[in-house]
Structures are given as structure tokens and as C-alpha cells.
Sequence to fold (480 residues):
Amino acid sequence: MTATLHRVTESFGAAISNLNVAHLTDTVIHRSKRMILDTLGVGLLGTNTAVFSKALKYSQGFKSVERSNVWGGSGLTLSPQYAAFVNGVAVHSMDFDDTWHPATHPSGAVLPALLALAETLPTQPSGLDLLLAFSVGTEVQGRLMRFSKEAQNIPRRFHPPAVVGVMGSAAASAKLLGLSPAECVHSLAIAASSAGAPMANASTQTKPLHIGNAACRGLEAAQLARLGLKGNETILDHESGLGVFYSDYRPSEFPHPGSGFQWVLEDQDVAIKRFPAHLGMHWVVDAALAVRAKLRASGVLDLGQVRKVVLQVPPSRYIDCPFPATEHQARHSFQFSACTALLDNEVSVGSFSMLQIDRPALRDLLTKVRVENPEDNHPSFDKMYCAVKVEMENGEKITAKCNTFYGHWRKPLSQEDLVGKFEANASTVLTQEGFEGVLDIITNLEKSPDCIALGSYLQMTIPTTCFYREACLTKIPALN
Fold:
């Protein structure tokens, strides 16, 4: 242990309770608003998916006196816990949500819980209150991920949002509820007993449930702690506590939020995706797009003349899928992503329809792909690269390499492109008044007296059938 025995959890409880809006910095406010806007957009888009529909149908079987809005559902409400669940599922249903380093999806586990909870409080929180609770939720995740060097790499055994995400949701919910330091400690302890989800469920419809469960169970943990339920007060201090998930667990105390305190988000921004797939796909797509541009410049127009495609990528079994048979497998396939970019000069929302996945030209090109894992290509979102090498039947060879894709924290999306992504996603579900209203509120969130109008705008839906909304998914332009 690197910290004083049994003081780590106590320090987290104190920080969660004592951080206030005066601690928020311009950088944290700016980055948090970008994360919130992006999360709302991908969540609204995700309400078009089959996995969301199944989660919603299941959740509607549970009744509650308290009700919270389902995003993109005109007049549709659920209990706060199940609203957090289905909205969290929507956020991750297409793997389009933000990614952090060390690897996790920080926003999807926190924002659905906060908005569901805010709608039930007797006094509506201000925009600054929401920003503070959101920042606390992401901060807790960021600090927990730094307890392990193993967490620096692309995950192999468990999905990080199911571990640190539920803790972040509990922390954020506890903050919005105004819990005491001791109650915040118990919120974390209770949440820890809902942590964990195996990576074997990546590339399936179950993976989005990891985010939904994290949002729901974290909210429940804070509510139970408020009622006096107690857990292990040193849950973060022990290898048998949160340490069960890491072989090199080294917890450290949360610094006192006084002078000199610095948020993790100030040092480490998030990556915001341009298309709905695992983050690793963005490197290989940018490299493949560069190869395609070189082929076109040399006069090659027929990709049927490709003899071989070599992908140099980091080792990771769950994103090495040679012949994807479902949209979820395709979102986790280096091979599919590279071949789609080579054929179409883009990867977009519509790329993952079964019509696109099963087309003969793509299937033929996939048979020509070979994957290599160079020793210097580390499975870390901060260090990895992807190279694409194409050899033509005439012997011509074209190569391109991507070290940092557009949207990565080292090369963040412009505000214009971020807003463009949000509008493209949200407009599949909301009316123009609805998505423009959401955009205006989030842009000025720190000045907003409450969150009532945000909930109203999130339910201003297009009066069309689900069939039309599903059809919209193939029409969203790529952000290249």
C-alpha cells in the first residue's frame, strides 16, 4: 500500500462530499460540457437500436412513484433507476461514447444517473450543481483507474466502466444528494458490490448493459446509503475490496480539495469518436483512408485488384474479428473497419447495417487481410498505432500509419465538429426545437438556474414511426 492504512476510502468520501462549485475550473467546465453534449447525442441516437428497445421493454414492467424521463421518448417515464439504466444502455448501444485514459467510458455511467436523479429532487439542481456532480463522478473514475498500471492497457479480463463506472455513478449521485462524507464512503462500498462485467461479452448486445447497469447501480448505492445502509468503510483500501479486479492494485488517498487541488480531467482529456465503433478502430480507419487516398492518386480505382492487406495493430483478442457476423462484432473488428474505409472512403453510422456487413465486395476484401502485432505496438490508447499496407496484383505497395487519429485527446475534435456530431445524432430523434434547445442549455450550462428545460427538450421527439427512425441511421454523414 502506498497510502496510510485504511485512509484511502475515507479520503474519497471526504472529497466527494466537500468538493464545491468554487473548485471547478474553466478547463474542467469546458471539457465536461463537451462530454455531456456528446453523451446526450449518442444516447439519443442509441434509442433507435434493438438493444435499447429490449432494455426499455423490460424496464417498463417495473412501477415506481418517482418517475424520470427516457431520452427521446415523448412523455415516456420510468423509475429513476430504470431511466438511468435504459438511458445508459442507449449511450453505449453503438459504442459511440467517449473514451478516457486509462481506458474507460467515463460519461455514460454518470450522466444518465444524474439526470434521472435530478428530476426527482424537491429542489432542482442548477447547471453548476450538475456540472459539479458530473465532474466528481468522472474524477473518482480517473483516480481509481490510476491505482493500477495494468489499467493503462486495453482491457483483457473485465470491462472498466462496469468497475470504475459504477463507482463514479455512486459518487456523482451522492454529490447531487448532498450526502455526508460517511454516507459517500458507504455509497462507494455498496456500489463496489455491483462492480464487474467480463470482456467476453464485448461484441454482443450485452456490452451496452455494462454502462446501463453502472448508471443504475451507482444511483441505487447512493440512495441506499442515504437511507442508512452500510458497507465496508475501507472498500478502496483492500485487495479484497476494489483491488480484486487488479493484480497490481496500489491505492492512494484522494488529495484534500484545498489550494493546489487539480482535477484529473485538466491533465487528461477524453477521446470523442467520429463513428460508432471501439476506439481502436479509429486508428486503423485513419490509416486506411490515407492508403485509399494514395491509391486514388496513383490511378487505382478497382479494389478488386488488391492482392493483400496487412494491418499492424496492437494485440487484443476481442477487437481482432476477421469475419464479423453482427453489427456488434463489426464495431470491434480491425479487419472490418479497415476494409470498409478502403472501399467506401468513410466509416459512418450506416456502415454497420447488415446490408453493408454482408456485401460481397467487403467479404471478398476481408479474405485478403492479415493481422500483425509488432512488438513496439503497445495495447494502450495512449501509445498504440495502426499501419495499413496494401499490395496490388501488379506488385504496387501502398502504406500509411496513424499514430494519433482526429478525435483523440492529443488531436481533439473542433467545437464545430463536436456540435455537428451532436446535431447529426440528435436530429434522428428530436425535432429541431428539441436538439437546438439541448445544445443551447449545455452550451450555457454553468449559467442555467435548473435542469427542467433540458428534460423537456430531450423529449421533443419527431412524430414518426420507429421504422423511420431506424432508417435514419443509414443517412447520417461521416465525420472525417
User: Anything to note?
Assistant: Confidence is low (pLDDT under 50) at residues 465-475. The CA atoms of residues 63 and 79 lie 7 Å apart. Strands lie at 68-69, 77-78, 306-312, 369-372, 386-392, 397-402. Residues 26-46 form the longest helix (21 residues).
